[in-house]
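User: Could you walk me through two proteins back to back? I'd like the raw sequence and the structure tokens for each, with a short line separating them so I can tell where one ends and the next begins.

Assistant: Of course. Protein one, sequence then structure:
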Amino acid sequence: MNPFERAERAGIELVERLGGSFDTAVVLGSGWAEVAGKLGTVKGEVAAEAVSGFHSPSVPGHGGTIRAADRGDRRVLVMAGRVHLYEGHSPADVVHGVRAAVMAGCSHVVLTNAAGSLNPSIGVGQPVLISDHINLTGLSPLSGPAPPEGYPIRFTDLTDLYSSRIREAARRADPAIAEGVYAGLVGPHFETPAEITMLARMGADLVGMSTVLEAIAARHLGAEVTGVSLATNMAAGMGGTLDHKEVLEAGQAAQGRVVAVLGTVIGSR
């Protein structure tokens, strides 16, 4: 079964198990799992590994559930956690969730992550709208055999990958919210100070180990994409040591702020 057919099957299962199609998908990154129950009235839940093609996340701070939630007139598919390249998964596995979400009706995909800040004006605990990304994984979810007939060709335009329309709406609701360019690397190690210097010179404000492949896959299928990073630490060489436990603690401390931002983004659709 090719990755698109596998995602179709998973999308059908999500609709059947969770009681109908969806408008918006939210993928929650490291330290965001506890936000899952705060994005609307929960209407149903299923373990991720019980849905075709999904894997249960193995990284601390990532949940393993998929929930249906109603927020106003939006029906939201909340994926509490994701899998990563550094866990040994293929690009097709990494983007399976967002593809299944689009197959389940989602025309808007919101991707969240924990990120290191390379920008002194973006402090720890600050949510940031992703304005663009730099894919340094060396991979693409559109490599390999061409998408089957009926799907868009793989040469996808990423000019407005992170929806400028939704970012503008979010800024109107919260003029103080920051924006930044996200650099996606494979990990799982944190970067060296020299690598952080390189990334800053390339124009990155944030650095992390997810999001970029999912964004490409969602855009390829025609979804509008929003990215929200939470700066959970200053990057290597900018003060202090790096520790995944601190990443999770920063995410927990900023829950109120991130829920407010996600509510604005979901409502902007």
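----
Protein two, same layout:
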Amino acid sequence: MRVLVTGGAGYIGAHVVRLLQERGDDVVIADDLVTGDVRRVPGVEVLTVDLASLDAIDVLSAGLREQRIDAVLHFAARKQVGESVERPAWYYQQNVGGLANLLIAMENAGVARLVFSSSAAVYGSASGAAITEDAQTVPVNPYGGTKLVGEQLVADAGRAFGLSAVSLRYFNVAGTGAIELADRARLNLVPMVFERIDQGLPPLIFGDDYDTPDGTCVRDYVHVLDVAEAHLAAIDHTVGGRGDHEVFNIGTGEGTSVRQMVDAILELAGSSLEPEVVERRAGDAAVVVASASKIEAELGWRAAHGLDEIVGSAWRAHVAARVDGRMP
């Protein structure tokens, strides 16, 4: 199979590219390289393009035809929640506009298989220990809104030109499958804790008075390798021309509290720092854990890596980057 991976030089995308290559698929990447790093994907052809730009449709249409692409995995997007609140119109232009351009190009080129990178942010303030795909979707920030509109757009495109598509709603992705593929962006809990440790500062915990066993928020942390494997299962599930759109959660179905995660990192790092509890952040639900039963039943996918592997792999990659000067 010949696969186009948009955002394939990014953290999750690069893991998927490697798995596709390992099983013998031919891969081409489309990436604007704003946050992506070509060092993650050596030897892979990269089509440098901003999917939201005016000329993206022509560039992508030509690329899909010339490369004889069979299927597309779409990761390219902006994903900073705070930035989306500050620049909502730009976020819709980037995330929804970029997806619209890609879908038009796919229709032009006759490519009818797609996996769309969505997010648990579509559930908004929904909370619980087993959030299912039919839970209410009311995003509480523009980033989540762009992902929900994206899912709707993919579904409409499926009905219009026979696209067979899967949208994957990620919960909290962490860890790494290889040192060179690690998450360098300090946007998620694990790299944020690493940064505080490096600075000799106590990791921050936003509130410890939630209705949970230790008072801190509980989240579903899933290893990036498991997320990557889910994409392979999803793209294999699509069949061009079927005109269908299915949605699956990507999580472990198990919750880990923020304090448990912070303590695990501090222990692994050999740090004597004590976490500092600060005020709650607005909108943080007490418990947000996926139900992953649907994807296991329909696609046969199940998370295989636990918390120790998530934290251990991320810390080893962080130390290696610190030693060889690759820290951002």
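The chain has two domains: 2-173+222-250, 175-220+253-324.

Let me know if you want the two compared in more detail.
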